[in-house]
Design a protein that fits this description.
heterodimer; A: Sodium/glucose cotransporter; two-stranded antiparallel ribbon; B: 129 residues; mainly alpha; two-stranded antiparallel sheet; 2 strands; 78% helix
Chain lengths: 559, 129
């Protein structure tokens, strides 16, 4: 897809559309420039996997924010708040509190004892091949779920943001073709970032994106608050009124934990689903492979700690902005106008941008400009997150599976990086293909599922590895496969996949598991499996645990 | 790497030392209870959202209700815990961890140097980056 084709269509397109495309292309041009520059600095495996471990705490904090604040955060949460009010806020809180798990229990120890991937820590005192295989499988499963969510989001957004409606055409493409074209374009760009730029290039892309996202969200937040003379109460009151839901809009229960009068079972399951989502959100973050690999990009564990502190500050501030954006969209755009554009509310933030631009930046032109900027920020957001995910999963495939399992640790550094680049290409291609077939799936669901799978399959093994002396190979395999399989299995038999109007297969029904999110069952299963698996095996390597414990706590011998 | 010049006995010795035990105790006595505390505090918030709708919808100031206040307090507690941990770690953990690490590094360097003198054919370990 050539950029000038887009620009050539400007003449008959809306001014906002052409501006969005121009801004997005500027972002792509800048980030590709950075990527090419970074590729010239990338010589060793450490450069490729860990950006040379040369980033500062603030830089990595921004990059963590860039990796974490995905389309689900920016568009999804703002949209949920705009449509369901208070319940959208629950996501923000879970996503933020989760960082304390990473800060207190994982980040520094992982940085001290690992090298490039999550499996470096899991396999530290275990039999390398089986544990690395399991960790690699789990990394790829989590990343693919997350990747598909982002790319499907990009495809859905493009038609909305560029104003392609069913029946209309864009560059001679109908809406479905344009969506597929977008998915392929996003996928192709992400492959370029990762293959060419490695961790160094990807990290800079995250930093640029985080800066754009924070600036865009800040400007919109200030405009919303200024509109209500910085009176939060009147913003909330107006949002509740315009939403058409009244006071209930500001209370929990419109979307999660819904109380159905006269149906005790349904009410019970809906509340369980809320608890399940809550647990998955708070425990998922510290098991996300693309977040864990971020801790390797800084020189020491102290700087890893600093970068998490920055990340908590940046991400927390951003979620406070989304609160203003969501309620602002409900108040200034209105629930009806939002659902008319997109039933899931994913376009609430861009619509709010347009409304604010019209009010404060000089009428329709101002509206078009602000809409274009926010739309370009949304594309940048998606692109950066998919690059981070592709890098983490291809690193695991090359470093854990290829180098340790296939080559039994005999692969040269150059060979390993070459395989990582090929793996990025292959995983990117798989994600593109799956995304094309998964277009009907709900984006927020896929992200919440990725969190549940990460919390079930990865977190128990990481925690046991770092803190439980008796933990062994059998325990690690049970924890990873037990958590991973139970999470995926329960989802397969949940109303998300079949048996409901919004399911993947709405016309079939094989569901028996009543909850949408498996976390409340699969996370305890992951921990329990790890415990049982450990006890049924006699293996225990006290020597290696001494080395792991001393190194993880003191940073001695850290790579 | 420094680790290559460090035999397993050395790790076991450090692990068994009072100094290291003190470091581990201090760290675990902070992070484990703190994790339990913030998790319960978060769980309480989620449970109240699910089961205490009447309480959550009590209006405090204008349209600001208990639910919103508790949600914002989760932000405040997260920021405060993060800040408090970093202060604790810098004051109580880092000095001990640094001391143990420096001793290990010095020991490894000495062993590495000795190995090079003893046996010129054996490749000496690299100095830590």
């Amino acid at each position: 897809m050539e950029p000038h084709l887009y620009l050539a269509a400007d003449a008959n397109g809306a001014s906002s559309r052409s501006l969005t495309i121009t801004l997005f292309l500027i972002f792509v041009a800048i980030t590709l420039g950075i990527t090419i520059w970074a590729s010239q600095q990338t010589k060793t495996a450490t450069d490729y996997y860990a950006g040379g471990r040369s980033f500062s705490g603030f830089q990595n904090g921004m990059a963590i924010g860039g990796d974490y604040m995905s389309a689900a955060s920016f568009l999804g949460i703002a949209g949920l708040i705009a449509l369901y009010g208070y319940d959208g806020f629950l996501y923000s809180i879970g996503f933020l509190v989760a960082w304390l798990v990473a800060l207190l229990l994982v980040a520094e120890f992982l940085r001290n004892s690992g090298r490039y991937t999550m499996a470096d820590v899991l396999a530290f005192r275990m039999r390398q091949r089986p544990v690395r295989t399991a960790a690699s499988v789990s990394t790829i499963v989590v990343s693919i779920f997350y990747l598909i969510a982002q790319m499907v989001g990009a495809g859905a957004l493009v038609s909305l943001l560029l104003g392609i409606k069913p029946g209309a055409t864009f560059l001679g493409m109908d809406a479905d073709t344009a969506k597929i074209a977008t998915i392929i374009l996003v996928g192709a760009l992400m492959i370029v970032y990762v293959v060419v730029g490695g961790m160094k290039g990807t990290t800079y892309v995250q930093i640029v994106k985080a800066f754009m996202l924070m600036t865009g969200a800040l400007v919109m937040t200030l405009l919303v608050l200024a509109h209500y003379k910085f009176n939060l109460s009147s913003l909330l009151g107006d949002a509740a009124e315009q939403s058409g839901k009244g006071a209930a809009f500001l209370e929990p229960g419109l979307r999660y934990g819904v109380e159905t009068a006269g149906d005790a079972a349904k009410t019970f399951y809906s509340k369980m689903d809320l608890l399940s989502l809550g647990i998955a959100l708070v425990l998922g973050t510290a098991g996300l492979p693309h977040i864990l690999t971020r801790f390797y990009t800084v020189p020491t564990s102290k700087i890893a700690r600093k970068s998490v502190l920055w990340a908590i500050g940046i991400i927390g501030t951003f979620y406070l902005f989304t609160l203003a954006l969501g309620f602002g969209a409900a108040a200034l755009v209105g629930g009806k106008a939002i659902t008319a554009q997109d039933k899931a509310g994913n376009t609430a933030a861009p619509q709010l941008a347009q409304a604010l631009g019209i009010d404060y930046l000089g009428g329709d032109t101002g509206g078009a400009v602000l809409l274009a900027i926010i739309a370009a920020v949304a594309f940048a957001t998606i692109l950066a997150v998919v690059a981070g995910l592709t890098l983490a999963s291809s690193s695991s495939l090359a470093h854990d599976f290829y180098a340790s399992v296939v080559k039994r640790g005999q692969a040269s550094e150059r060979d390993e990086v070459r395989v990582a680049r090929i793996a990025a290409f292959v995983i990117g291609a798989i994600a593109i293909i799956l995304s094309i077939f998964a277009q009907s799936l709900n984006v927020a669901f896929l992200v919440a599922l990725a969190f549940a799978v990460a919390a079930s399959g990865n977190l128990p093994a990481i925690i046991y590895s770092l803190f439980w002396k008796r933990f062994n190979t059998s325990g690690a395999l049970w924890a990873i496969y037990g958590g991973l399989i139970s999470a995926v299995f329960l989802v397969f038999f949940s109303p998300v996949v079949s048996g409901s109007a919004t399911a993947m297969f709405p016309d079939s029904d094989w569901h028996w598991f009543p909850l949408n999110n498996p976390g409340i069952i699969s996370i305890p299963v992951g921990f329990l499996c790890g415990w049982i698996g450990t006890l049924i095996s006699k293996e225990s390597d006290a020597d290696k645990y001494a080395e792991l414990e001393v190194r993880s706590l003191t940073g001695f011998g850290a790579h | 790497m420094t680790t290559e010049a460090t035999p397993t006995e050395k790790y076991l010795e450090v692990q068994a030392s009072d100094e290291f035990a003190g470091l581990r105790r201090k760290l675990r006595n902070f992070v484990f209870p703190m994790t339990v505390a913030f998790f319960l505090w978060y769980a309480l918030y989620v449970l109240l959202s699910a089961y205490a709708r009447g309480f959550m919808s009590v209006k405090l100031i204008g349209n600001i209700n208990v639910a919103l206040l508790l949600g914002l307090l989760q932000f405040v507690s997260t920021f405060v815990i993060a800040w408090y941990y970093s202060r604790f770690a810098a004051k109580e953990i880092d000095p001990i961890a640094d001391k143990i690490r420096d001793e290990l590094t010095a020991g490894a360097a000495a062993r590495g140097a000795a190995a090079r003198t003893d046996d010129a054919t054996e490749t000496g370990p690299e100095v830590a980056k």
